[in-house]
Amino acid sequence: REALEEANARVEIEDLYTVYSIPNISQVYMMFRAKLLDPDVSPGTESLEVKLVTEDEIPWDELAFRSTKEALEDFLQRRT
């Protein structure tokens, strides 16, 4: 749902990757691994810019959420 809302991205969910609990703001984030079905992505109603990037092009300092950064770092570390 978020991939479609944020990036007009059609994805096929593969599995649950990780869960982050952030008690001080009473939120739980569930991160899933998914396959991108179509590379044609564009900004949704809550996004200003959307683009596909290589690992070397990830704009680490521009990621909006710490949980996203941590999940990406963990994924890339485990992958190699």
The stretches of 5 or more residues where confidence is low (pLDDT under 50) are: none
Shape, principal axes of CA atoms: globular
The arrangement of helices and strands along the chain is HEEH
Tell me the strand order in the biggest sheet: 1-2
User: What class do helices, strands and sheet pairing give?
Assistant: alpha+beta
Binned, the helix content reads 25-40%
Write up this protein.
With 80 residues, the protein is α+β, with helices and mostly antiparallel strands. Helices cover 25% and strands 28% of the residues. The chain has helices at residues 2-7, 66-79; strands at residues 11-22, 27-36. A two-stranded antiparallel sheet has the order 1-2. The relative contact order is 0.21.
Gist of the model:
With 80 residues, the protein is an alpha+beta fold. The chain has helices spanning 2-7, 66-79, and strands spanning 11-22, 27-36. A hairpin with a 4-residue loop joins strand 1 (11-22) and strand 2.
Task: Explain the layout of strands and helices.
Blueprint: H1 2-7, E1 11-22, E2 27-36, H2 66-79
Antiparallel strand pairs: 1-2
Question: Can you give keywords for this protein?
Answer:
80 residues, two-stranded antiparallel ribbon, 2 strands, 25% helix, globular
